[in-house]
Amino acid sequence: MSEKKNIARAAGVLGAATMLSRIMGMIRDMVVSRLFGAGLYTDAFFAAFQIPNMLRRFFAEGALTSAFVPTFSEWHTNKGEEETRALANVCFTALTIVMAGITTLGIIFSPQLVHLMFPGFSSNPEKLSVTILLNRLMFPYIFFVSLVALCMGILNTLRHFFTPAISTVFLNISMILSALLLHDRFQVPIVALAVGVLIGGVLQLLLQLPVLYSKGFPIKPNFNLDHPALKRITLLMGPSVFGVGVYYLNITVGSILASLLPEGSVSYLYYAQRLFEFPQGIFTVSVAQAVLPSMSRQAAMGDIDALKESLSYGVRLTLFITIPAMVGLMFCATPIFSLLFMGGAFDYAKAVNCGTALLYYSVGLAFVALVRVLVPAFYALKDTKTPVAVAFAAFLLNLLFSLILMGPLKHGGLALASSLSALGNMLLLLWFLRKKIGPFGGRAISVAGMKGIIASIPMAVAVYWIMHLIDWSPAGKRLLKGGVLGGGVLAGMVIFLVSAHLLRCEEAGDVIRLVKRKLLKK
Hints:
By secondary structure, the chain is mainly alpha-helical. The protein contains 19 helices and no strands.
């Protein structure tokens, strides 16, 4: 029971910090949409940012975190603080060297990368040249954010979650201020956003270092690159790149194919993906990050029964959160874009196109969330092969569905393909994990899922009715739109929580107690 409380508490801290970050991210996207709309220059920026961002998700937040945290946690449990401190410094030094090389190569070969990743841009020389310029400016972001991810892994293992989760607030603030203050200082105004990304990466890293120092882990150069734990982490990272990053690889494939579709398609997918990641960032990632250190520690101690309990609880908590979020996003997709993004260079047609992409992404919210919880369980058990095999199958599914659906559904088909791929990924991971460790509360998970679906039905009816009370197409009327959308979201949450409580969902009680504790500051 204590481990459940630790997971729920950690998820709550992460969720609160990440909520602030995501709100700032939404404000950032609102500023970008109003200033730059959805067209040639935003397509160029989002495409250029996609390349270092993809590497961040694959390498930094994906492979590095999943390979580093279990090893570092085991070292911290068994070797003592002095040995663990030395390992942290060795990893930081090695990562600095590697990422400096990768960043240099990325800047030099930016034209080749852009041609490879976005072949559709070749038909528009201006879009192509702007994308290459922006990519060169932003590529150093991967250097800073990779070091941030390593610091995040250390702090999470030490049970400190707030600072890593809130660090992206500084990226968003930097981008917002750069867009507002610098967009008229460049010949190509959207260059201001690239400058904001670079400054934000530096600020994120500078935020972590003092906290590490206060925790007894001052970062110093250590060139003992023959360290045995470093070798183990390196071996784990190779397959982890694909295993953890398949979802983001699918998103990248979607962007590549979107470059072949009508202008604006890359931007529609980006804006939709950003809103789709809002509940993920607040809740799903928080649960995944909270449960990984617990599972890693339990695996290091050989307590598989405790690991299965933590995993089962993490899965049930994820389902409880994502099922209503999925339903809510599906019904509120276009109203969200109408309220938050319409205005300036962003009209209602763009809001509808973005809403279509968000609706299809939302179908896969629970599947994506469960993948993020299940994959770390394999890495906690030092199994990197199975997630890679499953990820490759999911990648092929996504590519197949994308090619089939992008014709009739355009950018919406690419979003739906990502959701269908996540479903296949989740089912395969569940099957292989059950074979590996045996049953881990399948009946309780199924019951929790069914209760979540049943509790979402009255919520869906209420939200659907409320969203159809007004016409969302006119510009302006933000007070009315905000009142209706806010009322619909609040009513949906209350109806779902009441329904879940009546159905005696254990997770509902945990969430309610956590909220009460936060409100009462206990």
